[in-house]
Design a protein that fits this description.
Blueprint lengths: L1 E2 L8 H4 L26 H19 L4 E2 L2 H15 L1 H4 L3 E5 L5 E4 L4 E5 H6 L3 H16 L2 H4 L1 H4 L4 H12 L9 H8 L8 H16 L7 H19 L11 H4 L4 H11 L11 H8 L3 H9 L4 H11 L6 H14 L2 H17 L4 H13 L3 H14 L6 H8 L7
Parallel strand pairs: 3-5
Antiparallel strand pairs: 1-4, 2-3, 4-5
Helix pairs in contact: 3-6, 6-11, 6-12, 12-14, 12-17, 16-18, 17-18, 18-19, 18-20, 19-20, 20-21, 21-22
């Protein structure tokens, strides 16, 4: 299972992370002819299927499932473009609104894709690399192989525990029930050999597709970056990833990056990565996913993610998210910066209500009361039925209160 911790954003060379270590002798071959969905046999396997089916029935009614038809169709298409139409028939995709970077696939064919993954992927090839890895676990029946010895723990919950322990303000403790719902207790811990096999299958799918297989290496080079940025912002030491359950069962990061790069077919580097299509499909959801990320109160990781998302140019939603992030931390210099960020958002998108709201609140906090009230009044003009209209109206009044 991929329970990733950082974004998929830049090539390894851009990060300055050397790709070293052992490499396979050849690129990952195309996947073998698909044998179809595996049918369980024996008491243990039938029990696994029964549990997975029950979990999926619960998932179908879970409030954190995103049911938007267009988004679901798009993510499914990326999966199908990656693994092929015949294999894709075996999968049922569920998108969960959970701001953790993760995807998984159960032995009965139910695939869970968390919104944190969609926020961090930059193109279809990167998303396909993660989904293909998970499908590799499914095709090779790794969860069944590990059932007897590894059923109790999950990579996602292990990482949530690490975050809640290292980030005093992180919302994992209060939202832990939501994270549990997203995994339902039936994910499995894979061995390093199984991870290597899933990597090989995942890149093999991409090699046989029309997408750029080199994106699989980009994924791993950026897994670490967000967690390091998060730790640095708190003045903590560089994380020991080998001490985290997820990383302890995965190949070392340098080895994995080198292996994934070597598995990619060289001729695939010239292929389309689907960045433009991905950006268009995610545009309606970007503000929502960014807001969920900011609410994690992980300043360093979120700031890293937002600024790297802006690598191809800042947009109003990105400036808004960065303003929200800095205003939430609330240091005097943060509030000055937040006002600037909100101002940039307003300049790019004058009719964005939330940018005017954030600008107004920030300006009032730093003593620019008149300007702040004007921005709050503009917010109310653009969004008169806002849930906080009464409170903002009091602040925006000429003789209104102060923050």
């Amino acid at each position: 299972m991929i329970a990733l911790i950082a974004p998929l954003i830049a090539a390894s060379a851009m990060l300055g992370v050397p790709v070293t270590g052992p490499a396979p002798k050849d690129v990952a071959p195309p996947p073998p002819p698909y044998a179809g969905v595996y049918q369980p046999s024996g008491v243990d396997e039938i029990g696994v299927w029964k549990d997975a089916d029950e979990d999926e029935r619960m998932l179908a009614n879970a409030p954190i499932v995103i049911r938007d038809e267009a988004l679901n169709a798009y993510v499914r298409r990326v999966l199908c473009d990656t693994v092929g139409a015949e294999r894709c028939k075996s999968a049922r995709v569920y998108i969960l609104r959970t701001p953790i970077f993760n995807a998984s696939m159960m032995p009965n064919g139910a695939m869970r894709v968390l919104s944190g993954l969609l926020l961090r992927a930059r193109n279809e090839a990167e998303l396909g690399a993660v989904l293909g890895h998970e499908f590799g676990h499914f095709e090779r029946r790794h969860s069944l192989a590990e059932f007897r010895v590894q059923r109790s723990a999950t990579d996602l919950l292990s990482w949530a525990t690490v975050l809640s322990a290292t980030a005093a303000a992180y919302g994992a403790r209060s939202n832990f029930d939501q994270i549990q719902l997203s995994v339902y207790g039936s994910f499995y811990h894979f061995s390093r050999d199984q991870e290597r096999e899933a990597d090989r299958f995942g890149v093999g799918y991409l090699n046989a597709s029309a997408l750029r297989p080199q994106s699989a290496s980009v994924v791993w080079q950026n897994i670490i970056a967000e967690a390091e940025a998060s730790a640095k912002a708190r003045g903590l030491k560089k994380p020991r990833f080998d001490k985290v359950a997820f990383f302890a069962t995965h190949p070392p990061e340098a080895e994995r990056a080198a292996t994934l790069a070597s598995l990619a077919a060289p001729e695939g580097a010239a292929r389309d990565d689907g960045a433009a299509r991905y950006k268009q499909a995610m545009a309606p959801w970007l503000p929502i996913f960014l807001d969920d990320q900011v609410k994690l109160n992980d300043f360093g990781g979120s700031d890293y993610l937002i600024t790297t998302l802006a690598g191809n140019g800042w947009t109003a939603p990105l400036w808004l998210a960065r303003g929200d992030l800095y205003r939430a931390r609330g240091n005097p210099r943060d509030l000055v910066n937040a006002a600037d960020f909100y101002g940039n958002a307003v300049a790019l998108e004058p009719a964005l209500p939330e940018a005017h709201r954030g600008l107004g609140l920030s300006l009032m906090k730093i003593g620019r009361r008149t300007e702040g009230q004007a921005s709050l009044r503009r917010y109310l003009e653009l969004k008169p039925n806002a849930s906080d209209a009464s409170m903002i109206g009091l602040l925006a009044a000429t003789n209104g209160g102060s923050l």
